[in-house]
Amino acid sequence: MNQTDNIRYDADHDSISKNAAGENPAGGKSKEELHRIYAILSKNENVPFPENIREEHFQVPFLDHTGTPRTAKGCLYLPESDRPLPLVYFSYYKITRDSFELARCLNEGWAVASPFEKQDHNSELTRDALAANSALLYELRHRPEIDAERIALTGGSAGGYTAMMLSALHLFPCCTTAAGAFANVYFNFRHYAPYLSTFNAPAAMALREEERADLMTLLSHLPIPYGIVFNTCRTPEIDARLDDLDTAAAVTPTMLTDCYSNPLMEQHNTSDILVPVDQITRSFTYEHVSSDLPDDFRIRLSDYPLPEGFSRSFVEQLPEGSFTERLVSLVPEGSVGELPFDEKPFQINIIDEGEPQSHGSHGSDIPKGNLSDLAFLSHYFTQGNADNFLTDGKLRLLLKRCAGLSAALPAHTDEAAEREGIYGSLSVYRKEAAEQLAVYQKNHPGEDIAGRMRVLAEQETELAEAAAFCIEAVEKTGQLKGV
Fold it and tell me: Which of 4, 156, 369, 435 has its Cα between 20 and 30 A from that of 363?
């Protein structure tokens, strides 16, 4: 285990309430409420929605993994302003006007955007969703209303996974926050999801066919109700894709810790049954599961035969001294607390809801208030991109995408797409990589990025042409700045 600061942060000093075993979390919930639970979003009941907000729907063409042109739809909320605004981008899931998180961000005077429609591309979690969300961000970064050096990525569950992946794949974010993220997507989908499905199967098979077809009825009878979410984003294609360990590593945040280049906060719940906390850190994993689960319930990384690297938690993969992890108590129901952070690049805040339980999921029925990342976002919006850092892993990843060698964002060379500049074409990826490196050089004039690319090109000859292309953009930026 890497040495770190293990801090218990008490947002309140009350005892922690625990969910009563056997309560039905699906009772009375609508599909919209389940969507909110999966996205780890809170319904807005107390924060006023500001006036003079422009809501704009937009769409961006992109190429899916087969090279087929598709359309990513987005929604942008813009406060009135005579200057470019910081942007909070909610990944994967759409954010709606009744969201607590949306109202708080808009009241800060920040722009907010997200995908607008959950379309088929979002079911391809490790592939087309990354391309679609990247395409939306590419469009937003070039909007005159948006401050391109003050863009924060955020999201929960699959949105947390997507935010972490986008943070690893791109150099432009000034910070990232994620909640309940599938940080080890290989563990979750190739091992834990099949186990959870097997665990739920007897109860599901005992139902009549029409009962299984009704979501609310099915949820009310499953031992682990929210395990059904795996049915929406686990496909035979994902299974086959993750069976190739090189590809699996390219789309698993835990395996990309050398590619992060901006401050990142992950918050997670100890009781989470859908995305076990063990993949984030072992420091606060409860020794036993709740009494409503069997003692031998397989929820830890060590319960499965995982390959090297995939068997380690996210924290265990981070550089020593680069992170702080804390156990955070619940805040009283109806109140709001701010998630703590310090100057280290990685903040791991684990919310203590007790041991894993059958109804634990992201949106458990434990009475609690909201823990907000607003102070973290505000701090890094003030800093802008000044706290970004360019690792060798990120530099290599950008050059690989520029060379058309990315497994996470495969490049396509269709003549029409290249000519039209559609996101996903090799020409756009080349332009994007060079642009991001040039902006980084502008903001970090003392770093010899061109020299580092030359070294990489000598070590990996397949990157030589891409390096030459990006070196030209970086050196032009240096000349303009007098470097």
Answer: 4
Q: How many CB atoms lie within 10 A of CB 86?
A: 23
| Whole-structure pTM value | 0.91
**Same domain membership, residue 139 and residue 49:** yes
Residue 247, number of CB atoms within 10 A of its CB: 17
Structure-token pair, residue 405: 């060698």
Range of the domain at 116: 41-156
Indicate the residue type of 122: N
5 or 407, which is more confident: 407
What beta strand segments (E) does 354-454 contain? 370-372
State the Cα–Cα distance between residues 13 and 219, nearest whole angstrom.
34
Angle between helices 426-443 and 392-402 (to 10 degrees): 150
274, 298: one domain: yes
Whether residues 301 and 405 share a domain: the answer is no
Percentage of the chain exceeding pLDDT 70:
86
Beta bridge partners of 43: 99
Write out pLDDT tens, residues 67-119. Answer: 999 999 999 999 999 999 999 999 988 888 888 889 899 999 999 999 987 55
Is position 177 within any domain?
Answer: no
**Two structure tokens written together for 378:** 């505000």
Q: Where are the alpha helices (DSSP H) in 301-408?
A: 314-317, 374-383, 392-402
- Number of folded domains in the chain? 3
What integer pLDDT is reported at residue 123 of this predicted model?
58
On whether both 355 and 206 belong to a single domain, the answer is yes
